[in-house]
């Protein structure tokens, strides 16, 4: 039996708390390709509201998984990129992808996500 006081110090709980969120995993994945502007992320994740996408980005930035760079130009240009800590989680994301793909195939579901095309 897991006791509640141990939850906050559990590595699995810590990981899920950092990358768990409606759009956090997909944001992290897109940023593995390099610095990305807010507008591009919004285009990639079109079903996210601006408020939700901004909230998820702020949480990832607060947790030091991503960094935000604002360029002093008009109109403003903002780019997001992975920090070293954010880059270090890419292998975890790939393993989650592989596990999820195998699970979906086992359930008879066609996989339509090519997040890691060429890496498998």
Description of the molecule:
- 52% of the residues lie in helices and 12% in strands.
- With 120 residues, it is mainly α.
- A three-stranded antiparallel β-sheet has the order 1-3-2.
- A hairpin with a 5-residue loop joins β2 and β3 (77-82).
- The longest helix has 17 residues, at 90-106.
- The radius of gyration is 16 Å and the shape is globular.
- The termini are far apart.
- The mean pLDDT is 87.
What's the overall average pLDDT, rounded?
87
How much helical structure, as a percent, in the residues? 40-55%
Beta-strand fraction estimate? 5-15%
Given helix and strand content, the structural type is: mainly alpha
Largest sheet data: 3 strands, antiparallel
Low-confidence stretches: none
Bulk shape? globular
Describe the secondary structure blueprint for this structure:
Elements: H1 4-7, H2 11-19, H3 24-31, E1 36-37, H4 38-44, H5 50-62, E2 66-71, E3 77-82, H6 84-88, H7 90-106
Antiparallel strand pairs: 1-3, 2-3
Descriptive keywords:
mainly alpha; single chain; 7 helices; 3-stranded antiparallel β-sheet; 120 residues
